[in-house]
Write a structure and sequence with these properties.
heterodimer, B: mainly alpha, flat
Chain lengths: 186, 218
């Protein structure tokens, strides 16, 4: 039963993550934090961090991570299979269509129309991540001051990324080391 | 640095291929096919295992391997296949390896290259999730992870600002309406992401039909 739920959740993630890269993130958040109580908001951020620091697409990494936590190795395999399955079917159909018509303008038009939506959805998931990082998990229930160390780390990281275009892996590693030291010492 | 890694595993791969062909030397006429699958598996496996940063990084590396080194595909064909992989839902790296595997040696080729692409993250994340479960409450690990949360939030904020900047360049009012509307629907109304994508996709189709009609009348 849990295998079926994992397969179906990650099937939806695979089917609707359009645009590659971070496009899968809002769908993963929806499925594993909101629809199913598989990860807490903080665990979800840790998952995104881990997927960014390791090779492989976010969706596949998440499928393995969540599957493994919920139902062991079998869960990881089932979730990963669910995530890849829509790609297999759609890619083979698209390849056949492409070989026949050599023209994808209609399809690309729809994708272009979806771009603002994809940005908005990533922004929405990103805002939840930001608020969780700065205020902790009970954001709405309390109007307390943010975690000032997190605010400073976020500010520095964002500045370095925008200004110097460094690889995100180094920014995350840096904020991990600096933040780790600050949280332990202060 | 990334290139060095790929070259390193290229050398390693040739040795593995020798072992592979020794093992299957007995099978005579099937040898070439086996060798091809072996090559496909090892190259997708090493690309996936050593490529950080997802689809947009892996595609040029695939091109170097499959077009320049193995001559399995023409350059133009690789570019078309890449465009297909980016248009299709799902992870770009997985899509690209499915289509390349399929072009090189049919359905079985596609399955072999999916396996090669998915196996490295599957193995790495399985191990990491066990470590995560074991060390999640360790104070040092916890402090580092907490520090990283701010870093990852900044990375996503950077991605959103860059992508939003590209939308802004289009100077299209409709794009902005869709962007703000989708954000409102997702963040404040908490409408399922899938529905938002379906509705906006349908809007895109309508817009396209409308444009076509307009052009037809001229």
């Amino acid at each position: 039963m849990i295998y079926l739920e994992l397969f179906w959740s990650f099937f939806q993630i695979g089917l609707f993550s359009i645009g590659g890269g971070y496009a899968a993130m809002p769908l993963i958040q929806e499925q594993v934090v909101q629809v199913h109580p598989w990860l807490s908001a903080t665990e979800f951020i840790d998952l995104i961090t881990i997927s960014q620091m390791t090779p492989g697409p976010i969706a596949i990494n998440s499928a393995t991570f969540v599957g493994m936590r919920i139902a062991g190795l079998g869960g990881a395999l089932v979730a990963t299979a669910g995530c890849v399955f829509p790609s297999c079917i759609l890619m083979l159909i698209l390849a056949k269509l492409y070989l026949r018509y050599k023209n994808m303008t209609a399809f690309q038009g729809v994708l272009k129309g979806l771009r603002p939506t994809v940005v908005a959805l990533i922004a929405s998931a990103g805002l939840t991540i930001l608020l969780t990082a700065l205020w902790g998990e009970e954001i709405l229930s309390s109007l307390r001051a943010p975690d000032w160390i997190a605010v400073v780390l976020f500010g520095i990281s964002f500045f370095v990324l925008r200004r110097y275009k460094v690889n995100p892996i180094w920014v995350m590693a840096g904020s991990g080391i600096l933040g780790g030291a600050l949280y332990l010492l202060l | 640095m990334e290139t060095d890694r790929i070259i390193c595993c290229g050398v390693f791969e040739d040795e593995l291929l020798d072992i592979w062909s020794l093992l299957f030397l007995e099978s005579g006429k099937d040898m070439n096919r086996c060798k091809l699958y072996g090559k496909l598996f090892l190259s997708t496996f090493s690309l996936s295992a050593f490529t950080f940063g997802g689809g947009y990084v892996i595609v040029p590396l695939m091109k170097r391997k499959f077009v320049d080194r193995f001559h399995w595909l023409e350059e133009q064909e690789m570019m078309d296949l890449t465009a297909l992989a980016q248009s299709c839902p799902g992870a770009v790296a997985v899509n690209a390896s499915i289509i390349v595997g399929y072009r090189v040696s049919g359905i079985l080729g596609a399955l072999v290259s999916i396996l090669g692409t998915v196996l490295p993250p599957l193995l790495i994340l399985s191990v990491l999730s066990l470590f995560y479960a074991a060390f999640q409450s360790d104070p040092v690990v916890n402090a580092v992870l907490k520090g990283m949360q701010s870093g990852v939030a900044a990375v996503i904020a950077d991605v959103v600002v860059s992508m939003g900047g590209q939308i802004a360049k289009e100077k299209s009012v409709l794009s902005w309406i869709i962007l703000v509307g989708s954000f409102f629907a997702s963040y404040f109304l908490e409408i399922n992401v899938v529905w938002i994508l379906l509705v906006c996709g349908a809007l895109g189709v309508l817009q396209l039909l409308f444009h076509r009609k307009g052009e037809g009348n001229l």
